Amino acid sequence: MLPQRLNFVTLGARSVRTLRAFYRSWGWHENDGGSDDYASFTAGSVAIALYPIDRLREEAAPSSDLPPSGAWNGVTLAMNFAQRSDVDTAVDEAVSVGAQLVAPPMDREWGGYSGYVADPEGHRWELAWAPGFDPD
Amino acid sequence: MLPQRLNFVTLGARSVRTLRAFYRSWGWHENDGGSDDYASFTAGSVAIALYPIDRLREEAAPSSDLPPSGAWNGVTLAMNFAQRSDVDTAVDEAVSVGAQLVAPPMDREWGGYSGYVADPEGHRWELAWAPGFDPD
After folding, report:
1. Which domain holds residue B25?
2. Of B79, B105, B97, which Cα lies nearest the Cα of B23?
3. Which pLDDT belongs to residue B110?
4. Does the residue A65 lie in any domain?
5. Whether residues B56 and B97 fall in one domain
6. Are residues B38 and B14 in the same domain?
7. Which terminus of chain B is more solvent-facing, meaning fewer CB atoms within 10 Å of its CB: N or C?
């Protein structure tokens, strides 16, 4: 039995500097203890961390190649909003500070409404409203 | 400004069935509302969700190829423990139910102690102890 717990999501970064600046541009407050090679941002019970991808590979995938630069990694992160209209606002805001628009907000099969943006290294964020789900 | 918030980490799954069984084997309790194509597990303020990778791609990376099967995706998830010795126990437990051992627990440059395992589709989990960090 392992605890049902997630403390960190670490994004291997080609450039910690670029990604740090990007997430700061979202208005995010960086945790103390960062360095040129490390940044973390607390989001609820989890911290989103940035760490050089070659050093992360040494730890997490020592016999593997680096994933291709800029390609989608098969994972999405989602930020939910209380109101459907908040999604439009959030996508506009994200794009205005340099996020790549991947998919404009649209109705989704599962009953919600969401759009996708990517950070400068292609990590996907779904900005979403789901009926009956209060993210706060 | 975007809220500093993470509600879902969705892992694109080649087989939702396999990954669901794997995380259940960790003793995790699945949220209601799952289906053959969807499972989610709440961990603190975040839910870890499983969704077919081809369908996730249609939403999140419509013009991209699927990432290569089984390759490291450049991301790690971490589960922290209160005691250093808990890491050894957790890695043993994870491996005993079918996790792939990627790196045995060892002292880390940053002052902690951790090992890495992978789920059946290669998603990395760092099982870690960090001095002074209480994960509960």
Report:
1. 8-60
2. B97
3. 86
4. no
5. no
6. yes
7. C
φ and ψ at B23, to 5 degrees? -70, -30
Q: Count up the domains in chain A and report the number.
A: 2
Whether A83 and A46 map to the same domain: the answer is no
Amino acid (1-letter code) at residue B106: M
Residues B54 and A45: their CA atoms lie apart, in Å, by: 29
Residue A135 is assigned to a structural domain of this protein: no
In a domain, A38, yes or no: yes
**What span, in angstroms and rounded, lies between the C-alpha atoms of B118 and B77?**
10
| CATH code of the domain containing A37 | 3.10.180.10
Chain A residues lying within 8 Å of B101, measured CB to CB: none
Q: How far is B6 from chain A (nearest CA, A)?
A: 5
pTM: 0.97
Report residue A136's pLDDT band, with 50, 70 and 90 as the boundaries.
confident
**Structural domain contains residue A136:** no
| In the predicted structure, residue A81 carries a pLDDT above the cut 90 | yes
Contact B27 A2 (CB under 8 A): yes
Identify the pLDDT of residue A63. Answer: 87
Tens of pLDDT, residues B71-130: 999 999 999 999 999 999 999 999 999 999 999 999 998 899 999 999 999 999 999 999
Nearest CA of chain B to the CA of A77: how many Å? 5
Three-class DSSP labels, A46-75: EEEEEEEHHHHHHHHCCCCCCCCCCCCCCE
**Nearest residue in A to B80, CA atom:** A7
Q: Tell me the count of A-B CB pairs closer than 8 A.
A: 201
> Cβ contact (<8 Å) for A6 and B48?
yes
* A52 plus A88 within the same structural domain: no
What is the ipTM score, two decimals? 0.97
